[in-house]
Amino acid sequence: MWDKKFLTKYNFLSQTIIFAHPALAQNFVGTASPRSSSFVPFADPGMREPDSVRFGSRKFTVIFIVMTTSLITAGLIVIKDKQLLLAFSNNKQAFYLPGGKADPGETAVDAVIREVFEELNIELSPKQLRFYTHITAPAFGEQNGVVMEQDCYITEIQHEPTPSAEIGELRYFNTAAYQLQPHRPPGVVEVMRRLKQDGIID
What we know:
CATH superfamily of the largest domain: Nucleoside Triphosphate Pyrophosphohydrolase
Helix content: 10-25%
CATH class of the largest domain: Alpha Beta
Distance between the termini: 43 Å
Strand order of the largest sheet: 2-1-4-3
CATH topology of the largest domain: Nucleoside Triphosphate Pyrophosphohydrolase
Structural class: alpha/beta
Strand content: 35-45%
Largest sheet: 4 strands, mixed
Number of strands: 12
Number of domains: 2
Number of helices: 4
CATH architecture of the largest domain: Alpha-Beta Complex
Radius of gyration: 20 Å
Shape: globular
């Protein structure tokens, strides 16, 4: 694979080449300097090459990062005036979908009902939840290699939610407003992209 065609395809202008599972791309894109590293997605975690390679007079350092851990979560989608309700995590300092990690043996539906009650003081029943989509994305605020797997459910709420102590603020966002946030977890970015594509939010 280490030939002129391969290097030209990825336009390597840097000295470090990072290989990672595609689901981990957002861990590196926008954080690594384009002059110091290049990202190449690969789907085979068993793929291995030398830790360095030469092409002509140029020597490249090769880094492999593979998916190691899945974080099973569930998220709640609440829409108002074509905007998405997000909760600010005091711990992670970012706006997320209401919801959180599933306990061992807990279903996604049970997890989102429990987490929403703990975070928003709203009681939901399974009949009030409609499955919308599943998101796979790098887990924001976790170590590299941790991937979030999240089932997302849509519901309508009859009463204004009340944030718990772990939630700093509740706010409705459209996609443009969310882009102004300093920290944007990849999972939230992806679910908002799908909601906008489906015409559910602006």
